[in-house]
């Protein structure tokens, strides 16, 4: 069932040509304005340091209406010592979001990476670690109550083969650390919308099946989980399996869960031709088609704004250029593809149907 367009919005601008243009030449009608017509938040991950660059702040605030802290709400930064929290950077990001009428998704309350030594270098008993987890989640979520509406509560609990990652949390608390985390977050802010988040979980396979089984059990048990995040760190040379994506979305939506596209980037080889940029654009655009088609998908977040600050080159040697804006803040074909999908929806001309609709 397609999303209902809140108001039929006939865009008056003709879209930017399929060549990169300066962000200042972006269409008169912003990406976020069009996305709002389809009840979708378009967002990006970033750090406070990025906002100090005027072109970054201008591009982000003019086109996006959702913010995810890339690193500054993770344990190592927000809870650096057992008895000390540091909300300074998170507060700066939330203040920017409030100033620009953006939603914030807190990232992330429980993960196995970017944890401080006081947490990882100690042998914890289960009762001790449960108490530490409860104190962390309730302090952080409580601090942002009413300001951060969405949370990545638990991040990346499963291995590719569907087994549980042997993380600190799993080893000491067992698989019920997930239920505990969601319970603590809900108790801290009953209005918050709570997600499980992972990568390589968008299709059909051992990992997404394990996640489906787990969240199905949590829903049936009445655990306050509201959605699943597909990070979508993709490669331009691998086409989307639209059939598997549709199948996975369908089974999750039948649990009453939302789906968020939480960390989209589509990396391409450094020496790749413009054909790769077109392939990248097709993936970005098709993901937005899914978001427009499924009312359950109401957040489309890229993991960064500009190629200039993307995490990809530092982690995938020989790859980069993974986002919608290049290192000079020029809108790429990926932006054009996403914009075009939203523009067609705003005009009532959206026609995409996933290969499996139910
Ligand atoms: O802040 C320190 C700085 O003080 C120090 O000088 C510098 C050099 O050592 O490191 C800085 O910390 C880095 C941090 O990013 C902030 O820039 C860490 O070394 C670096 O490991 C960290 O990388 C982050 C990565 O998660 C950690 O695994 C990336 O920026 C961030 O984009 C990435 O994001 C994750 C999501 O949270 C979860 N999903 C996957 C995604 C990509 O890995």
3D architecture notes:
The chain is an alpha/beta fold and 358 residues long. The protein has a single domain, classed as TIM Barrel (Alpha-Beta Barrel). 39% of the residues lie in helices and 17% in strands. The protein contains 13 helices and 12 strands. An 8-stranded parallel beta barrel has the order 2-3-4-5-6-7-9-10, surrounded by 6 helices. Strand 2 (41-46), helix 2 and strand 3 (66-69) form a beta-alpha-beta unit. Helix 1 packs parallel to helix 13 (333-346). The longest helix has 20 residues, at 274-293. The protein is globular and about 55 Å long. It starts with 20 loop residues before the first strand and ends in a 12-residue tail after the last helix. The model is unreliable at 5-24 (pLDDT under 50). Ligand G3I binds at residues 70-71, 113-114, 155, 231, 263, 311.
**Care to count the β-strands?**
12
Query: Could you give the order of strands across the largest sheet?
Result: 2-3-4-5-6-7-9-10
Radius of gyration over alpha carbons? 20 Å
Query: Percent of residues in helical segments?
Result: 25-40%
Our measurement of the CA-to-CA distance between the termini, rounded to an integer number of angstroms, reads: 9 Å
Attached small molecules:
ligand G3I
- What string gives the helices and strands in order? EHEHEHHEHHEHHEHEEHEHEHEEH
Task: Determine the CATH superfamily.
Answer: Glycosidases
Features:
eight-stranded parallel β-barrel; GH10_AS; 39% helix; 13 helices; binds ligand G3I; two-stranded antiparallel ribbon; polysaccharide degradation; alpha/beta; 358 residues; single chain; GH10; TIM Barrel; glycosidase; xylan degradation
């Amino acid at each position: 069932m397609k999303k209902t367009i809140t108001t039929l919005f006939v865009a008056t601008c003709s879209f930017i040509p399929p060549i990169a243009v300066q962000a200042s030449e972006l269409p008169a009608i912003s990406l976020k304005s069009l996305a709002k017509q389809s009840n979708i938040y378009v967002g990006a991950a970033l750090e406070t340091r990025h906002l100090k660059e005027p072109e970054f702040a201008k591009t982000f605030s003019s086109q996006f209406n959702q913010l995810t802290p890339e690193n500054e709400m993770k344990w190592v930064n927000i809870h650096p010592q057992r008895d000390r929290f540091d909300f300074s950077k998170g507060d700066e990001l939330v203040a920017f979001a409030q100033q620009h009428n953006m939603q914030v998704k807190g990232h992330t309350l429980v993960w196995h990476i970017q944890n401080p030594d006081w947490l990882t270098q100690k042998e914890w008993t289960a009762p001790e670690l449960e108490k530490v987890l409860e104190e962390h989640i309730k302090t952080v979520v409580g601090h942002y109550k009413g300001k951060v509406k969405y949370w990545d509560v638990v991040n990346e609990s499963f291995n590719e083969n569907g087994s549980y990652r042997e993380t600190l949390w799993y080893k000491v608390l067992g698989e019920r650390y997930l239920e505990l985390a969601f319970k603590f977050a809900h108790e801290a802010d009953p209005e918050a919308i709570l997600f499980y988040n992972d990568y390589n979980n968008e299709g059909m396979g051992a990992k997404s099946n394990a996640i489906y089984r787990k969240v199905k059990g949590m829903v049936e048990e009445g655990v306050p989980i509201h959605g699943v995040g597909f990070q979508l760190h993709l490669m331009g040379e691998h086409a989307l399996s639209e059939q598997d994506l549709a199948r996975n979305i369908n089974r999750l939506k039948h649990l009453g869960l939302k789906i968020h596209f939480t960390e989209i980037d589509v990396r391409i080889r450094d020496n790749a031709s413009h054909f790769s940029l077109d392939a990248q654009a097709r993936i970005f655009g098709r993901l937005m088609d899914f978001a427009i088609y499924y009312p359950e998908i109401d957040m489309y977040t890229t993991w960064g704004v500009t190629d200039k600050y993307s995490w990809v080159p530092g982690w995938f040697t020989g790859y980069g250029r993974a986002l919608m804006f290049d290192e000079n803040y020029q809108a790429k074909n990926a932006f054009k593809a996403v914009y075009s999908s939203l523009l067609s929806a705003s005009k009532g001309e959206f026609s995409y149907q996933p290969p499996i609709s139910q």
